[in-house]
Structure formats: structure tokens, C-alpha cells
């Protein structure tokens, strides 16, 4: 069945697929259906050998303005527990291939949290980031107190989470939340360019390197170093390591296959 709230562009560059959140009238508010479609699309692309890197965007006005408030407003705690909508997020988190967020306009609440699940973030000058849940009488529920704090530090995270203040793209760049800021007409192009650069690398190395970087947030330095070393050694089981090193010696460009 075709998804309704996302658009999948299969090959926007070699080995790069693009998923676009597509509920423009609602500023891409993340309802259950959209999140389910996104989970399924990411799972399929993660298993597709013709894809090495995924770009995730909204539109110029909004990456996503958060969880769908209208869908959530009347729910009870038991509804929330039974629906367990955050379990979708656990599956999304397991995507092995790098995901690059292309962000313009609002990235708020769950939208900011979804963006922080991505591995690199390209923003337009018009991007605004925030965790405004506090203004709704709640608080972030999908990583806003954890990933944001790890990315920007306690001072700014507390300010954003406790007052709901939005920050600009320049502030986000300075705080280390995002990778780069470009004029609005270029944000998607720049994200695809970055994706293309990564997609030229060994797909196995990409996955294992992503896994190892993320490990840094979950573990002690000693365990992280151990994990990193294991992944490094493991890559010597693949043909891409032979190809990459032989290509260097022969002074030519490597051709990686992921085998
Ligand atoms: N949910 C539902 N509808 C929304 C949302 C949203 N989060 N954001 C905007 N919309 C709708 C508006 O209701 C409006 O619809 P309508 O035309 O039918 O009234 C339409 O989108 C356009 O919005 P506005 O008219 O408000 O546009 P403005 O340009 O005036 O304002 C803002 C833009 C500032 C972004 C404003 O819309 C706003 O404040 N939105 C809510 C932002 C917010 O509070 N986000 C946090 C939501 S809670 C959350 O994310 C919890 C995370 C938990 C994990 C996530 C699980 C999926």
C-alpha cells in the first residue's frame, strides 16, 4: 500500500534515497499513521542494497511541528500506555544506515526529537528548533531531555525544555546541534550532497562506524573503545577493506560493493 503522509524518492543521487514528511497543512505534525509509515519506509530502505544513505526532510515551512497535538489531546495515560507510540521510535532508532536530516522551518517537540535521531543535520537559515512541550503542560517524551542535553549541554537544554524557547539555525549551529546552515533554497540540495559523499564509502563501514559513534552515548569510554576495536577488526572480513586499501596503494578511486 502507498503511504499517505510520506513521499519516498528512491534515488535522488547514487545510493541515496529521500523520505519526505508530507502533511503540509498540519506542518508535518507526527501522527501515528505518519510515524508508522516512516518506520516501515526506513525498515525497507535499510534492507535495500541499492541504498546506502537516507535523507529525511519535511518542506520549506516545517520539518515537523511535533507530535500531533489534536490526536493526543484527549488521551488517557492508559491510552498512551496501550498505544505505546514511542515503540515506533525504537524501531526507527535501529536503522543501521546513516540518516541525514534536511531541516527548514519548524523542528519542534517530536519534530526536533526525530531530527536528533538522525546522524547529521543540514538546516536552512529559516530553521527553528524547540522543545515547546512545557507550554502544553507536558514535557519532551521522545529524547528531548536526553539527546538535546547531550548535544547542546545542560544550560541551553534546560532553557529550551523549561521555557519552550525556539532557537535559530545559527544558535543551533553554534551549540553543536546541527552540522551546517545554508540558504533556504539550498538546504535539501546540501543534504543530498552530504549524503552522496557518505554514500561513496563502503556501506558496511558506514553502518559499523555509525553504530560505534552512537555507542559513545550509551557506554563507558573503555567499553566504547572495545566496541570500536571489534567493529574495526570485523571490517577486515569484508571485500571493501581489501578494495579500499588496494585502491589507495594503486592510487585509484575505490569501488565499494558492501560485500
Ligand atoms: N499538532 C497538530 N497540529 C498542528 C501542530 C501539532 N504539533 N502544529 C501545527 N499544527 C496545525 C495547526 O493546528 C494549524 O492547523 P489549522 O489550520 O487546522 O488550525 C496548522 O498546523 C498550521 O499551524 P498554525 O496556524 O499554528 O501556524 P503558525 O505558523 O501560526 O504557527 C507553530 C506555527 C509556531 C509551529 C504553531 O503551529 C505551534 O506552536 N505548533 C505546535 C508546536 C508544539 O507545541 N509542538 C510540540 C507538540 S508535543 C510533542 O511533540 C510531544 C513529543 C512526544 C513524542 C512524539 C511522538 C510522535
TrEMBL record:
CDD domains to which the protein is assigned, alphabetical: crotonase-like (cd06558)
PROSITE patterns tied to this protein: ENOYL_COA_HYDRATASE (PS00166)
InterPro entries: ClpP/crotonase-like_dom_sf, Enoyl-CoA_hyd/isom_CS, Enoyl-CoA_hydra/iso, Enoyl-CoA_hydra_C
Keywords associated with the record: Lyase
Keyword check for Lyase: yes
Domain of life according to the entry: Bacteria
Pfam families: ECH_1
PANTHER family, alphabetized: ENOYL-COA HYDRATASE, MITOCHONDRIAL, ENOYL-COA HYDRATASE-RELATED
Family: Belongs to the enoyl-CoA hydratase/isomerase family.
Protein name: Enoyl-CoA hydratase-related protein
Organism: Chitinophaga nivalis
